[in-house]
Amino acid sequence: MSSLIRVVVAEDEPAYRNAIQRTLTLMPECELIAVCKDGQEALEACLADPPDVLLTDINMPRMNGIELVRRVLKQEKGIMVVVLTVNEDEDTVFDAVRAGAMGYLLKTSTPQDVIEAIRLADRGEAKITPKIAAKILGDFGRIKEDEETDDSELYVLSDRESEILDLIAKGLRNKEIAAQLCIAEKTVKNHVSNILKALQVNSRTEAAMKALKTKMVETN
Predict the structure, then answer these.
(1) 23-58 pLDDT tens trace
(2) Please, are residues 70 and 37 in contact by the beta-carbon 8 Å criterion?
(3) Least buried of 1, 41, 159, 167, by fewest C-beta within 10 Å?
(4) CATH of domain 148-213
(5) Model pTM greater than 0.90?
(6) Orientation of helix 204-213 relative to helix 130-140, angle to 10°
(7) Dihedral angle sign, alpha carbons of residues 171, 96, 206, 120
(8) Where are the domains of the chain?
(9) What is the average per-residue pLDDT within 184-194?
């Protein structure tokens, strides 16, 4: 596995696009393979040479960031997505997570926040901040379930997987979960993969939100 993190950036505002490029120069392990001015250009770049991480805005010409994430992950599921935007309304946050975004940052974030988000996404991890979690939970309450059966019967997790899901919902990373449970980090990753399949979700962020909504885990 390469030590470099290959990144594609999608941002339509020239000034902020330049700012992102400057930020990524502070990240020695970053290999910036494409800087795109709109969603369509980013889609083509990601499919031609799939990056490890896609860092994308939401409001862009030709194709918005939500549609970009959906289309990219439909064909290249291994790409991790971090959204970097001015949008913090519930619908936009929810749609980004449902589409498969691993991280969601506002443009008021510091350069170090952006770098950390990319590094976490590359490891398949993302911090779930209380503010973002609250917004997504609000929209989960409006989802109509296809089945009328009890939600608890839809997901069959082992005791260990339930324990790990609870820690994911609390915002712990794989390394932190492994340390707390005294198991190998690789074992945690395998359990997380099983959890995502069982809950039929695209990311650990969505898994946490679904678990909270269905009361599989408890909020503190």
Answers:
(1) 999 999 999 999 999 999 999 999 999 999 999 999
(2) no
(3) 1
(4) 1.10.10.10
(5) no
(6) 60
(7) negative
(8) 5-126, 148-213
(9) 88
Q: Is the pLDDT of residue 156 over 60?
A: yes
Indicate the pairing of strand 5-10 with strand 103-106.
unpaired
* Type and span of the H or E element at 163: helix 159-169
Name the fold adopted by 5-126: Rossmann fold (3.40.50)
User: What tens digit of pLDDT does each residue of 116-138 get?
Assistant: 999 988 888 776 555 666 666 55
- In whole angstroms, give the CA distance from residue 160 to residue 172: 15
**Tokens 């910036």, located at residue:** 32
Classify residue 90 by burial, with Cβ atoms within 10 Å: 0-12, 13-18, 19+: middle
* CA 116-111-78 angle, 5° bins: 40
Q: What is the dihedral of CA 83, 88, 90, 93, to 10 degrees?
A: 0
CA 43/CA 69 separation, integer angstroms = 8
Q: 84: closest CA among 112, 61, 107?
A: 107
